[in-house]
């Protein structure tokens, strides 16, 4: 990465490289893996991209739980495709992180040892098939709000991964909404299941955007670097404004008595999420943290023979060509 920035660099070389980097960011041009970049920029990106990759992989679990008991062949095919997409997203993102000079195995170790985080939302349980629909509608919907701006993020491999991912996320959101539409046209019991799932997932979905801006000290630096495009609160507002009409169309109530259109602001006002709950979940004390990580660890251990076999095969192929 910083190959031409060794100890033997001429005096002033640092400043020149930094100035070149700053100019590139100011001109909205992409930073590529071989370009010089400040160490703090690289570190921030490694953290953000790997946490994003972990979220895709851990995010397979709440819905994956329902594959075996999907109510029809059609629903099973849709859900399988969706969960497989999430595995693919994890793959693109680990590959993007590796262009920053880190190793995927090491990132996985950090996840299963609890040294790296993933999105807080996946620490909540999925209790009925309506949760599959609500996760698609709200959780993938929130992910779209977060990720569409990231298609313009300053680091090239991350931005390009996001373009591919966002296309699939919009399918995820639609399949969730379509499932809920069908359920709302069904029996009273099905409608109750949908409302119950909405009640449980609404607030955690709002928390997906992170703490309020006033408590998000790294936002400003990340925005200056073009890693982050919008603030947490702006994205949260966009999500609420986008979701309210969809909820009305669906016929469900969003569980927030303070949710009201504010004509003066041209946005919806809404209540305050329980930030203490978010802190607790991030700290590792959410309803499903321990289970999510231990299942990931078990899957990683169970897959060791595949990695060993692939490595042995690659070595043999290499030897054969020498
Ligand atoms: Fe995804
Ligand atoms: Fe998704």
Question: What would your notes on this structure say?
Answer:
Its EC number is 1.14.13.149. Pfam families: PaaA_PaaC (PF05138). The structure is a single chain. Helices cover 65% and strands 2% of the residues. It has a two-stranded antiparallel sheet. The protein is an all-alpha fold and 322 residues long. The site of one fe (ii) ion has 5 residues, from α6 and α7. One fe (ii) ion (FE2) binds next to α6 and α7.
Main attributes of the structure:
322 residues; mainly alpha; two-stranded antiparallel sheet; disordered N terminus; binds fe (ii) ion
Provide a quick synopsis of the model.
With 322 residues, the chain is mainly α.
Overall shape: it is globular
Strand content: under 5%
Question: Level of helix content?
Answer: 55-70%
- Taking strands numbered 1, 2, ... along the chain, how are they ordered across the largest sheet? 1-2
How many strands in all? 2
Largest sheet: 2 strands, antiparallel
Rg, rounded, reads 22 Å
Please mark out the parts with pLDDT under 50 across 5 or more consecutive residues, or reply none: 1-8
Distance between the termini: 29 Å
Keywords: Oxidoreductase
GO cellular component, one term: cytosol
GO biological process, one term: phenylacetate catabolic process
InterPro entries: Aromatic_CoA_ox/epox, Ferritin-like, Ferritin-like_SF, PaaA, PaaA_PaaC
